[in-house]
Design brief:
Strand order of the largest sheet: 5-4-8-2-1-11-14-13
Shape: elongated
Oligomer: single chain
Number of strands: 36
CATH topology of one domain: Immunoglobulin-like
Strand content: 35-45%
Structural class: alpha+beta
CATH architecture of one domain: Sandwich
Radius of gyration: 29 Å
């Protein structure tokens, strides 16, 4: 489930590090989930999994239910087919909330006794042995619990468009709130049918192919959707409203004489279609582009689609995204999930990165391929800013946090930092063709299945021949990011740069990483160097660059925004003079003024430069404490250059 919007890029400035701090509007999907969840009780999160369900493997779900657009009342039956995979199976167990009433259970052709309590259905299966088949149909109905983004089923009036809609959203633990199910990520059903009976004025959107619409008595119709692809329990979905269809086609290069059907269910109003049509049409370009970088859209012979609801974001139901509106980033994100989250699904909720980090990076890649580098750069800078807005937290979700919805779908960690480490991995590989081969090989090896973060690491190692144990230990399982302090020394025939790394937490004390630096010299010459950081304090010599172009004057750290890091002090020393130290600069970011404090008094020349190196303010002071008025400066990134006795220190600050 998901989404993001971002902005910005920096260019040169004297002796500075490329900044990664701009405002980042949050994931519409994850934020909406969390915001709406605040209205819910914890019922869906106190998930208790019964290991008895591991004794069988689901092959098929067939939902045959009745729903309407203006309430969550549900009635019907669900057929579950499975195979026994244990030697000592005593009972057949499914999950279904107690608020729904089970009327009867047909088990392998017999009307059987059952119990339904503590959100579980139990049926005696003591006569079955390993390899035996299970065919169970559960007849049930009632009014499920609802309320909030993470409710299994919701019905609301869409105030933006003026229509009622009912829809389902089962991630992570809420499928049991609307149908009998086995909530186990690694047990994908081989196929699924979803039949929904509703008022004739409505239409129903779901997974797979709409095989037929059957007219029934009493002014009702039954929509019969069927899918032949493996599917995770939480990706089965329905959406019901007074819809119209607006359908288009994509033409990925892999399908020379065929196309991908894109089936969109939007509210039945001409004004709504005209409002949304351009954004929906852009989906075809996204399908074509993402097919070119990830491999052919995995469900191409069924469809891709969207169903409009009052959902505050999007949910990547397989072949039919449930969506609250259309925009480039939201479309790119939810479509990316069809590869990462649907075709290959996270094997555990600990590894939600397989879904959310990859889908977020799909937004970046789609901007890069379809809009341009500047737009993509704005996106990744904002993602990096958000990832570093707090010092700790791992992308991998610890076991103790798996009942915390806020943690699983943390937009800073699962989404943004998750996208950022893919961007860093791409940089570490240093070969785009090889990076995208990793992405496609991952799809090929885990098609229709589930995977962990370690599985992706292993594929990356297999394809590239590189070792990524350290990378994943510090960026995936570890916490935080480094802050770099840089000092460079100009001598007559030598140039040395000292890099000092400070971690944001003690969990990961050092980040071994490849870094890029752009160097600027007195005569206008510039060059980009790469340094592989192997220790917290590292001194590198660049004598081949000394003298030929005058002194080194400026440094940009990470000029292309590949990596996660913050910049502390950047100090230049052209002599043996001890560099000036700004003891304190606060607040940062600042709005109207900042205060500088020094360790001792003495004359200093202070210059403020904007993000492109233009001088915007210059003055001198002899005070240990100096107040600087920022009211005349526009919002943005600035660099404070403090010169004393031939040595210069650079500090970065933000005016907001």
């Amino acid at each position: 489930m998901k989404y993001i919007y971002y902005s910005l890029i920096l260019s040169l400035a004297p002796v500075f590090v490329m900044a990664q701090n701009h405002n980042h509007s949050t994931h519409a999907c994850s934020e909406a989930k969390i915001a709406h969840y605040s209205a819910m009780e914890n019922r869906a999160l106190n998930e208790v999994y019964n290991p008895a369900m591991d004794k069988y493997d689901v092959s098929f779900y067939h939902l045959d239910i009745s729903l309407n657009e203006d309430n969550v009342d549900i009635e019907g039956n669900v057929r579950v087919m499975a195979e026994v995979v244990a030697n000592d199976m005593d009972e057949f167990v499914l999950q279904l909330v107690d608020e729904l009433t089970v009327d009867s259970v047909i088990f392998n052709g017999e009307n059987t006794t059952f119990t339904h309590e503590n959100d579980e259905i139990h049926v005696d299966a003591s006569t079955l042995a390993n390899g035996d088949q299970i065919d169970a149909t559960i007849y049930y109905g009632g009014t499920p619990p609802t309320g909030g983004f993470f409710a299994g089923i919701s019905s609301e009036y869409d105030w933006q468009y003026g229509f009622d809609a009912t829809w389902t959203l089962s991630e992570p633990y809420a499928a049991k709130e609307w149908f009998p199910v086995k909530q186990n990520l690694t047990d994908k059903a081989d196929s699924s049918y979803v039949y929904v009976t509703t008022k004739a004025a409505n239409q129903v959107a779901s997974n797979g192919i709409l095989k037929q619409v059957v007219d029934l008595s009493g002014g009702e119709q039954r929509y019969e959707w069927e899918s032949s692809y493996p599917i995770a329990y939480y990706l089965i979905s329905v959406a019901v409203a007074n819809y119209q269809q607006y359908n288009i086609y994509a033409h990925p290069e892999q399908l020379e004489n065929d196309s991908v059907f894109i089936q969109n269910f939007i509210y039945d109003s001409p004004s709504i279609l005209s409002q949304l049509q351009d954004d929906i049409d852009a989906t075809a370009d996204l399908v074509e582009y993402q097919s070119s970088i990830f491999g052919l859209y995995p469900f191409w012979d069924e469809k891709y689609g969207n169903a409009l609801t009052p959902l505050g974001g999007g949910m990547e139901h397989q072949t039919m995204t449930t969506i609250g509106g259309f925009s480039f980033d939201l479309n790119a994100h939810e479509l990316g999930h069809q590869w990462f989250g649907d075709n290959v699904t996270c094997a555990t909720w600990n590894d939600i990165w397989i879904n959310e980090g990859f889908a977020t990076y799909s937004e970046y890649l789609s901007r890069e391929g379809l809009i341009g580098p500047s737009s993509a750069n704005s996106f990744i800078v904002a993602a990096q800013n958000n990832a570093m807005s707090s010092p700790g937290g791992s992308i991998y979700v610890p076991d103790e946090d798996l009942n915390d919805i806020w943690r699983i779908f943390d937009s800073r960690l699962s989404y943004d930092k998750g996208a950022c480490i893919l961007h860093m991995l791409r940089f570490e590989i240093q070969d785009d063709d090889l990076f995208f081969e990793v992405m496609q090989t991952f799809q090929d090896e885990y098609i229709d299945s589930t995977a962990t973060g370690d599985d992706f690491k292993n594929v990356a190692e297999e394809v590239t021949g590189m070792e990524f144990d350290t990378f994943f230990e510090q960026w995936y399982y570890g916490e935080g990011y480094p802050t770099l302090d840089i000092t460079y020394f100009n001598y007559e025939n030598a140039l040395q740069i000292e890099f000092a790394q400070t971690p944001s937490t003690n969990v990961t004390p050092f980040f071994e990483m490849l870094m890029e630096y752009q160097l600027f010299f007195e005569d206008g010459y510039d060059t980009t160097i790469q340094v592989y950081h192997t220790q917290p304090n590292q001194l590198e010599s660049f004598n081949d660059l000394a003298g030929a172009h005058g002194n080194l004057t400026n440094i940009i750290v990470d000029p292309s925004n590949y990596t996660l890091e913050k910049t502390g002090d950047v100090v230049v020393s052209n002599s043996s003079v001890t560099p000036e130290v700004v003891s304190t600069l606060y607040p940062n970011p600042a709005n109207e003024k900042i205060t500088l404090e020094f360790s001792e008094s003495g004359k200093r020349n202070i210059t403020i430069l904007n993000a492109i190196g233009e001088r915007v303010k210059k003055f001198s002071t002899e005070s240990r404490k100096t107040l600087i008025n920022l009211r005349s400066l526009p919002e943005g990134i600035y660099f404070l250059e403090v010169e004393k006795g031939g040595a210069t220190t650079i500090k970065k600050f933000i005016k907001n």
